[in-house]
Specification:
Length: 197
């Protein structure tokens, strides 16, 4: 019997996905955009509250003006006090409105910057994903080529092994026939019929 050879099989190596700096940059940008959006929501709520306060102050101002008209017949010092309060409230309201307008412009500028950054980030992400898709397609093509090549090698090796086995079988059959004939002749030499043994 012919000795058998042991061969080691090759194992396929899995490649880990490489998370590059672009993906980390994208995550940071998304986090910054979310933070700025939350900050903008808080600022917008504050602006709404201030606007509501401003409306309340305007309403109060109107009420004071009505009281002023009703109190014109009263003492002169009450009239002067009301005028002073009116001017003070008007000044506070104007100052607050100017501050709110400046803050609104600042927030709109920040929002425009964030939207620009988000648009750039989306474009970068799109390019990155497109590059990854191309790389994956290229890797799949290479894998398919390697599979085809390995299949050819395997079929070639198996054909070679089958050919060797066939030639070995023929050689063993010839050898067995020679041995069989030799034993048959020896049995006949001893006077035995090989078919009866």
């Amino acid at each position: 019997m012919a000795p058998t050879k042991k061969t080691k099989g090759k194992k396929a190596v899995k490649q880990k996905k490489n998370t590059g700096p672009d993906e980390e940059k994208y995550r940071k940008t998304v986090l910054e955009v979310d933070t700025l959006k939350q900050h903008l929501v808080l600022r917008r709520d504050m602006a709404r509250q201030v606007m509501a306060d401003s409306e309340g102050l305007k309403q109060r101002l109107e009420d004071l003006e009505k009281e002023l008209e009703e109190a014109r017949g009263d003492k002169k010092d009450i009239y002067e006090e009301m005028i002073c309060q009116y001017r003070q409230l008007q000044h506070q309201t104007d100052t607050r409105i100017q501050n709110l307008e400046a803050e609104t412009q600042n927030l709109q500028a920040q929002l425009a910057t964030c939207q620009k950054d988000l648009s750039q980030s989306r474009a970068d992400t799109g390019r990155m994903l497109e590059g990854k898709d191309k790389a994956l397609a290229e890797m799949q093509r290479k894998i398919d080529e390697m599979e085809t090549e390995y299949e050819k090698i395997l079929h070639g090796s198996l054909d070679c092994v089958l050919s060797k086995l066939q030639s070995a079988k023929l050689s063993w059959e010839k050898e067995a026939t020679v041995i069989h004939m030799e034993y048959k002749h020896r049995l006949k030499d001893f006077g035995l019929n090989p078919l009866e043994v």
